[in-house]
Design goal:
Layout (H helix, E strand, L loop, with lengths): L2 H5 L4 H8 L4 H5 L1 H32 L2 H28 L2 H22 L7 H26 L8 H29 L2 H19 L16 H13 L1 H17 L5 H8 L4 H20 L10 H21 L3 H29 L2 H32 L2 H22 L1 H4 L3 H7 L1 H15 L1
């Protein structure tokens, strides 16, 4: 082949690099590498505890209602503490906050391990401890999320969030699988004990990070600080658009509540089929994260959010119509890919549209949306299916999600046209680029 013929052909190595997940943030920034590694260790233990708690409650009570109440015990403090956690994350050294919260999480999960040694541990004590872990997580998560933008160059921030999404999906798949084996062979106390060990190891890794004090004068944590963050959010239409986009996708298109009905009645399957439906979106999301090397080359991140959520809605609508298990799983995997792509770009828009001294509070709002949206979506799907059918609930919800997202994309010009240049205009560029440059340069 002549040089002239080869000139127009894409280099195969380049194509592979654009598909495989970009690990540049891990190579360039030692502090981001430590943050990521600590989270990788902790998330496996956390996922194990999320399996162990409902299992223990059900074994002790033989009541699905009590299992549901155990989830509710975690939801309320998580939602209540998230905004306050964001204001704390903006007012203190984020590294110290992570060290303190993960140390306290280790102690609380240690309490669960001790309770599991008892023949009949009091249910109320388990509820109290899981509620405390949820509240501590509401302090930990905004600090972790808000730290990323100060540790890497803004050009590779989407790649950093793709790496974070990979951790989330791997943890959601591997953690529960390991938990099932350990509970069956070593018992609940050892399962909780491994989570304690994971937090201890995470603290050891995070302690090697450099301090991350507030870059600007900040409002003291509290109601006034929260109000300041919400007022700023009102002025950022692109960020508001991201939150609305996610709420729309989860409220109309969340399929989890209907998995049993669709698996058993529409697909004629059994409990294994239900498990496959639950696993399919996570598997698709993991594939999407592992093939996300292209995300750093996208210039119109806001438009990417809109397109990915439209794809999500159409895939969910197709899922509701399908009567063939392989096609159903494939459509749920497509939805999972679209979801993870949306998450990467929504995080990018959020973190680059917000100055460093407000990132914790806005990250906390984002966590509240991500946590509450799926629960509202499950409720909508269940109510709609009860008065129509599971298929109608999913098809109508998926189509509504896609149509509403297209409408929001048309109306929310700030989101549709958002690019990295908007980060410069917002003044966030100085926070990200200069600070990350100093940190990477010193490492």
């Amino acid at each position: 082949m002549t040089a002239t013929e080869n000139r127009g052909r894409p280099d195969r190595g380049s194509v592979r690099r654009r598909l495989v997940i970009d690990i540049t943030p891990l190579r360039e920034s030692p502090d981001y590498r430590r943050l990521w590694t600590g989270h990788a260790i902790a998330i496996l233990g956390t996922q194990m505890t999320r399996v162990a708690v409902p299992y223990q409650v059900y074994v002790l009570t033989d009541s699905t209602l009590m299992v549901g109440l155990a989830s509710l015990a975690q939801l309320l403090p998580l939602m209540a503490c998230s905004l306050f956690g964001g204001s704390v994350a903006d007012a203190v050294d984020r590294r110290k906050l992570l060290l303190v919260t993960e140390g306290l999480l280790a102690a609380v999960v240690g309490g669960l391990a001790l309770l599991a040694l008892l023949d009949r541990p009091p249910i109320w004590a388990i509820f109290v401890l899981v509620a405390i872990t949820a509240g501590l997580s509401a302090l930990d998560s905004p600090a972790r999320s808000a730290s990323v933008a100060g540790l890497v160059r803004r050009q590779i921030l989407p790649s950093a969030f793709a790496l974070n999404q990979t951790l989330t999906q791997v943890g959601a798949i591997v953690g529960p699988a390991i938990a099932g084996v350990i509970i069956a062979t070593l018992g609940l106390s050892m399962t909780y004990g491994l989570n304690v060990l994971s937090f201890a190891l995470s603290v050891a890794v995070l302690s090697r990070m450099r301090p991350m004090p507030p870059a600007h004068a900040v409002t003291r944590p509290g109601l006034q600080s929260v109000i300041e963050g919400l007022r700023y959010l009102r002025s950022k239409r692109a960020v508001m658009g991201c939150f609305l986009a996610d709420l729309n996708a989860m409220f109309f298109g969340m399929p989890r509540a209907l998995f049993p009905a669709i698996a058993l009645d529409q697909l004629g399957g059994d409990a294994v089929t239900v498990g496959l439906l639950h696993a399919a979106p996570g598997a698709g999301a993991l594939i999407g994260a592992l093939t996300s090397g292209w995300v750093s080359s996208v210039t119109r991140q806001g438009r990417a959010v809109i397109i990915s959520i439209i794809v999500w809605g159409l895939a969910i609508a197709g899922f509701g119509l399908s009567h063939w298990l392989p096609l159903t799983i494939a459509l749920l995997m497509v939805a999972g890919v679209a979801d993870v792509v949306s998450a990467v770009f929504r995080q990018t828009v959020l973190q680059l549209s917000v100055p460093d001294h407000l990132r914790g509070r806005l990250s906390a709002v984002h966590i509240g949306v991500v946590t509450g949206g799926p629960l509202l979506g499950d409720a909508r799907a269940g109510v709609t299916a009860s008065v129509t059918s599971p298929a109608f609930a999913m098809v109508s919800g998926g189509l509504a999600s896609a149509v509403i997202m297209a409408f929001l994309g048309w109306r929310l010009t700030a989101l549709r046209r958002w690019t990295l240049a908007d980060a410069d205009a917002a003044g966030a560029d100085a926070d990200v680029g200069a600070d990350a440059g100093r940190r990477v340069g010193r490492a």
